[in-house]
């Protein structure tokens, strides 16, 4: 049960963090009037950083249990 709960909440955390990162860069581009970074970089950061964080959290979690 604990492993299932970890994956459920870890996935929700990663999805919400990715959305926040994407929306922050998008709103910064809107405020500035031009793109702060390119759309492809926004997508890569929005996917890569939360996945890396989930991987690190899983490694820490699997060591404790």
Keywords:
mainly alpha, 65 residues, 2 helices
Question: What would you say this structure looks like, in words?
Answer:
By secondary structure, this protein is mostly helical. The protein is 88% helix and 0% strand. The protein contains 2 helices and no strands. Helix 1 runs antiparallel to helix 2. The chain is elongated and about 45 Å long.
Fraction in helix: over 70%
Low-confidence sequence ranges: none
Main sheet specs: none
Number of strands: 0
Look at the structure and give the mean pLDDT.
90
* Rounded Rg: 15 Å
Distance between the termini: 12 Å
H-E order: HH
Portion in strands: under 5%
User: Structural class, judged by helices and strands?
Assistant: mainly alpha
How would the global form be characterised? Answer: elongated
The tally of helices reads 2
Oligomer description: single chain
Secondary structure elements and pairings:
Blueprint: H1 2-32, H2 39-64
Helix pairs in contact: 1-2
Short description:
This protein has two helices and no strands. Helices cover 88% and strands 0% of the residues.
